[in-house]
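Why does residue order matter? Because the sequence determines the fold. Keep that principle in mind as you read this record.
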Amino acid sequence: MIQVFFELKFVTIDDGVLQKVAHPESHPLTESTLYQQRLKKIKVEEFLLLSDIPTIKKWLTT
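Structure:
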């Protein structure tokens, strides 16, 4: 999830080298679109793993 820190400007990447920003602005991780996308993916994966087949079929057809 290095991309999240890059997106929030906590780190820089120059020529493939990751470096921390000395005094970055404070941002919650939830401001990152990449972080939000990852949370959505995790929720879908949990749903698919923990749901029964009829529930998944219903979800797919709606």
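The two ends are 32 Å apart (CA to CA).
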